Automatic annotation (TrEMBL):
Similarity comment: family membership: Belongs to the SAICAR synthetase family.
Gene3D superfamilies per the UniProt record, alphabetical: ATP-grasp fold, B domain, Phosphorylase Kinase, domain 1
Domain of life of the source: Bacteria
One Gene Ontology biological process: 'de novo' IMP biosynthetic process
EC number of the protein: 6.3.2.6
PANTHER family hit by this protein: PHOSPHORIBOSYLAMINOIMIDAZOLE-SUCCINOCARBOXAMIDE SYNTHASE (PTHR43700)
Coiled coil: none
Domain SAICAR synthetase/ADE2 N-terminal: 16-266
SUPFAM superfamilies documented for this protein: SAICAR synthase-like
Protein name per UniProt: Phosphoribosylaminoimidazole-succinocarboxamide synthase
UniProt keywords, alphabetically: ATP-binding, Ligase, Nucleotide-binding, Purine biosynthesis
The encoding gene: purC
Length: 296
């Protein structure tokens, strides 16, 4: 197992943002995005990292950026360390967990697509029979496939939770043309990703996308169909209403919930067995989707 990378320090390279998981550096005409092994849950960065998690996030995003590039342009330029020129002194920390990407003017909304009912969608459905305010068929169980994927946008806030909004609110804030583009492209990305994943024995229950503008062109940015941005289930063990075995960080969320943590104070350290079980889920997601072992 590799030593966990919790943050990066690249002297002489301009760090412009340290997010919950990624460190982003300004390279002048492009950005360097480095996926660390930090893990977040319930809007907290946990004190315990998951070794190799950042490599999974980076390499699985590259896999999808290349596979789904015909749907919409994306910001990916390269993840080949040999193309990094002046960054080569930092190749040991960057290899496998970084990519150079185009600069984009970010659209401050998350484009969430749900193909199955679970999580916050399930909680809303139990209360009022809707998901994101849309009426759903009666009798659904936790984990059931929805009749059609639904687009449920969220406004990105600099502090605290992202805020779920209706499509109509998105339309009023960004205009009907851009709103419909975001919706249609997000659903197409989800459907093509979901259909491919099913051939590999993985169910993508839901996911989120982010977009920006590069030279005036709508462009997919950030990460793509990773175990951090999506909910992955094993098709072989999928039992709606009973068991939803995940290949994502739901395992950590479940442990935190069961630990008695109040979600309002500093999170507890994760036990070694939870760290390793989570690490294995991330590695298995990569293995199943790409058909390859992750290069560690």
């Amino acid at each position: 197992m590799s030593k966990a990378v919790t943050e990066t320090n690249l002297p002489g390279i301009n760090l412009i943002h340290r997010g919950k998981v990624r460190d982003t550096y300004d390279l002048g005409d492009s950005l360097l995005m480095v996926a660390t092994d930090r893990i977040s849950a319930f809007d907290w960065v946990l004190p315990t990292p998951i070794p190799d998690k950042g490599k999974v996030l980076s390499q699985i995003s590259v896999f999808w950026f290349e596979k789904l590039a015909d749907i919409v342009p994306n910001h990916f330029i390269t993840d080949d360390i040999n193309n990094y020129s002046h960054l080569l002194p930092y190749s040991d920390v960057l290899r496998g967990r970084s990519m150079i990407v185009k600069k984009a003017n970010r659209i401050d909304y998350e484009c969430v697509v749900r193909g199955y009912i679970t999580g916050s969608g399930w909680a809303e459905y139990k209360k009022q029979g809707t998901v994101a305010g849309k009426p759903m068929p009666e009798g659904l169980r936790d984990g059931d496939k929805l009749p059609e994927p639904i687009f449920t946008p969220a406004r990105k806030n600099e502090e605290g939770h992202d805020e779920n909004i209706t499509y109509e609110i998105l339309e009023s804030e960004v205009g009907s043309d851009l709103a419909s583009q975001l919706r249609d492209i997000s659903i197409q990305l989800y459907q093509d990703g979901r259909d491919y994943a099913e051939t590999r024995g993985v169910i993508i229950a839901d996911t989120k996308f982010e977009f920006g503008f590069v030279d005036g062109q709508l462009t997919l940015i950030d990460e793509l169909l990773t175990p951090d941005s999506s909910r992955f289930w094993l098709e072989s063990e999928y039992r709606p209403g009973e068991s939803l075995p995940s290949l994502d960080k739901q395992y950590v969320r479940d442990w935190l919930t069961q630990s008695g943590w109040d979600k309002n104070s500093q999170p507890p350290e994760l036990p070694d067995e939870v760290v390793e079980a989570t690490r294995q889920r991330y590695l298995e997601a990569y293995r199943m989707l790409t058909g390859k072992e992750l290069e560690l």
